[in-house]
Amino acid sequence: MIATESLSKRFPRVTALDRLSLDIGPGVTGLVGANGAGKSTMIKILLGLSPATEGRAEVLGLDVATSGAQIRERVGYMPEHDCLPPDVSATEFVVHMARMSGLPPTAARERTADTLRHVGLYEERYRPMGGYSTGMKQRVKLAQALVHDPQLVLLDEPTNGLDPVGRDDMLGLIRRVWTDFGISVLVTSHLLGELERTCDHVVVIDGGRLLRSSSTSDFTRSTTTLAVEVTDSDAHPDGTEALRAALTAAGVTLHAGVEDGLPGAGHILLLEASGEETYDLVRDTVAGLGLGLVRMEQRRHHIAEVFKAADQQEVTAR
Ligand SMILES: Nc1ncnc2c1ncn2[C@@H]1O[C@H](COP(=O)(O)OP(=O)(O)OP(=O)(O)O)[C@@H](O)[C@H]1O
């Protein structure tokens, strides 16, 4: 769907993208990075709206440097910022966008009605958009990206400004763009956690450089820490240490140190979970030692920790 090779974009004072090489297949892909990481710059280059300084990029097999117009016919784009005219209705606006994409009048009206229904806008679609909530505006922006039935949509921070329920609704809609319509999605966010649930593949960039590109399951697996808390017993007055020794002997990777648990409830061990077998192993080991299991829960790393890990690798490599 998208391939870039050593793609760079340098502004006079900032390198927004630094030799980025990516290969993104069909499905839902998340492009994650902090503010200023280069996400919007990447999208503008992929749409053929802004030239790269070095390197190359292809979208649907078309070169962004020479085929911008053809790419924009086949690709939908949801921009980050509020760009909706306040005094027209969602229906008028989306019909207009459909016409701009080349659909004849009747098809444009039909596709608009279908798309607005899909994103969950019903009678309010006839009201001027100036009075819409942020969630409704984001839905209109998604609808206009989908109305010409593209093969791929590029969504720039679609959950920006939404409350947790609005965020979940938007992420559900995005997932269905792929599962119900077979339209591939590249979605940007500065929150890794929300994309983990929605995307098949996650690309993390920082300061314009690629930190990581992997399938979500690989990502989650390798960034999953399990927190385990046990009680002590007569046979094992320090249950945490007994469990640490038994799990180490069984080949489990434990983090150094313990987290303080609730008073009198022992301590929390942090260990690397490599899959469901780790859960079973912990459960069986705790039972074998005759300890009580207070908690076993998944801890997820935050994006900042992914960045930190990459920085450390870089320092080690220098
Ligand atoms: N036209 C421009 N001229 C100069 N610098 C720019 C321009 N556009 C972007 N930049 C800079 O390039 C870097 C990447 O910006 P970009 O907008 O791509 O980041 P982003 O990851 O999309 O972040 P955000 O979510 O905050 O928009 C930033 O340092 C930004 O200031």
TrEMBL record:
Residues 2-232 form the ABC transporter domain. Keywords: ATP-binding, Nucleotide-binding, Transport. Belongs to the ABC transporter superfamily. It comes from the Bacteria. One of its GO terms (molecular function) is ATP binding. Pfam families: ABC_tran (PF00005). Gene3D superfamilies: P-loop containing nucleotide triphosphate hydrolases (3.40.50.300). This is ABC transporter ATP-binding protein. It comes from Streptomyces roseoviridis. InterPro entries: AAA+_ATPase, ABC_transporter-like_ATP-bd, P-loop_NTPase. SUPFAM superfamilies: P-loop containing nucleoside triphosphate hydrolases (SSF52540). Transmembrane segments: none annotated.
